[in-house]
Design a protein that fits this description.
Layout (H helix, E strand, L loop, with lengths): L1 H24 L8 H21 L3 H7 L1
Length: 65
């Protein structure tokens, strides 16, 4: 379950990062502030990577016991 959440956070963060960078420095215009998308994308992307890298999946831990 933790790896699924980490994967979702990573993908959502990457999408938000791309939209934020294109909105702030590129030619795409969004209804939201591009800087807010950029900051949220950084937070979600790195938290998702951290979950994938350092947490063990709960299903795997329970099956070993």
């Amino acid at each position: 379950m933790i790896k699924i959440l980490g994967f979702i956070l990573t993908i959502g963060g990457a999408i938000s990062l791309v939209l934020g960078v294109l909105g702030a420095f590129g030619s795409i215009s969004l209804g939201l502030s591009p800087w807010a998308l950029l900051i949220l994308g950084i937070i979600f992307f790195f938290s998702g990577i951290g979950l994938l890298k350092y947490r063990k999946d709960t299903d795997t831990v329970q099956s070993k016991n």
